[in-house]
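ok trying again, last paste got cut off:
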Amino acid sequence: MSTISGPSDAASDGVAQEAAGAGPVPGPQAPQGTAAQADGSRVRPQRHASIERFVAGPAPPPSVAAEAARAAAAMSDWTGGGSLPYRLVRIEEALPFEDVEACWKGRRDEWRDEVVGAAGSAVDLAGLLAELLCSLTAAAVSYLWRSRGQYDKLYGELYDLASGRRSDPVAATLRRLVAAVETAALPPADARERQLKVVQLPPAEAAEGAAVQVYFSDEERWYRGTVTAVNENKTFTVLFEDGDEDASVPLCDLYQELLEDGKPLELGLGDPGPDLAEGDRATALHLRRAWCAARVAAVRAGPLEGTTELLIKYEGWAAKWDEWVPRDSGRLRLYRPDELTLSALPDEVLLLLLSQLACSLSLRRASAVCRSWRARLRRGQRDADQLFESAWLNLPVVDPLDGRVCLGVAGALARAPAGERLRLSAGTKLRPHDSQLVCARAVHLVADAGAALCDGTLHLHGGEGEGEGGLVEGLAISHFRDEAVVVHTGTWTLRGCSIASSRKSRAVTAVTVRPGAALRLESCSVRNALSAAMLHDGAELRAVECVFDNTRTGVISRGGHLELERCRVEAPCDVVLKLNPRTTGHATANRVKCSLFGGWQRPVGFRRHSNVGLPAAEEAAEAEEGAEAEMAAEAAAAASPAA
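nice, full thing came through this time. structure:
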């Protein structure tokens, strides 16, 4: 070991930084076409003002970036784990060459080998750490420590250990001093990492479909999102849960949530780590802080002589999560059969556990945890369908820590898959910023008491083959000028909904059914509208036990098929039906207080019977039509071969 000398006060001579000893890895520059301020922050579209930049400069090669991102994630708050030589080498790797004297460049490799060789000697390790502190420039010392006195005290204790003036048989004092140097030299956990437990997304995982977290400094909060595209300029397009999309998010702004809060093991003096060979089972600490069952796929020599690295394949995880882990990193331990892991759960126990997740969003997040869960939660399987059919997604989703909305109603309706079961919490008042609330697919939306859409329009879409169609139940809708509900495509049911105009005078049509769409109104009420419903050619509408109050016209059609059964039309109302001659269907057992057709002709393909409250002339005409229909039916029955 080299002779220990006092700390140097010389200034740095500007030695070029090399990858082997680099500090934080430079991130990508702001891409062309995105707004970048002088301080490096990026101006976000809409309400997202900016995202703080950690670093600047050209992007490193992918392989270097991947290793550096993993190392930075491991160093962010994993201090205190692994063997003492492993921790000393990690401290040295975190120091840029600009922070050490020029002579250290030639001494570095030899020093690292000596550290590995001194694994069992606390005296030698203390001397090597003191030598590293001696190589720091005066500028680095003033930056890393608040005062020169703190540095001198730390160096003095290391000198006493290395010179034998102070005994440390179990290396307890040395561990304390190493931890103090780690606190000063290693990158501290970022404030955003302390606010929400996350790690930076490794470049190898930055692909389409990756679940990410992005921090917005203007709002001082995190937003969950999904990577929807990888751009040519090495940025990413992220769709956030609230419906916003950012098309130019750099890799350094992408994070992923931790699975757990595991810490690496602290190894004893001279302990090289668990004795594992190729093919052995082990328990490994994943970069997302979860202890997982794993298997050793390969063994190789480490970058330093005398060190070993193991290729870890996590059981139940895809191959992309495989990684080389140093044996003495504290992230490996021998496999214990009594440890319970997700992949070790029996099928019946796993299903019982998943059945306790009453939130459909929780089920989807669970499916992203490991492959065995994802296989069980795949739609189309009987067990998975039963789990999703019994689960609901309560909206809006509120963060229990700060009470902020994580997932709004608009974002959920725009992104929810067909068949999703959504529930609006009691008292929720929806006021879309553009007065438009869109259901992109056929979902089941149930509103608890007091939930309402205020002065807006509900647009309903749904493709073919989406089960039984969409459902909206119990929602109160108020509209001002435009329609309250527009059914564009698919088959939908409105059950127990109330629709009313907020204007003093009657508003326009309350419900519009576009060509090719189908709507069933069950026990709904419509008030203060020029017409309760507008039926386009090629559309279908069935209204059962509904109430039309203060509507000038009940239903206006331009064709299509209409069924009006057991409905009540309150006064004042000019006419119940204004039907195009191409309209088919029937009006049966309705209670009205006005004319059914007024001056409009009844279409040939439209029947009426058992309606109550008609004017005398229409009542007689309906009775006559009923008698003729009965006679025609009897004649047809008599002429049939069966008769």
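cool. The two ends are 114 Å apart (CA to CA). Residues 616-639 form the longest helix (24 residues).
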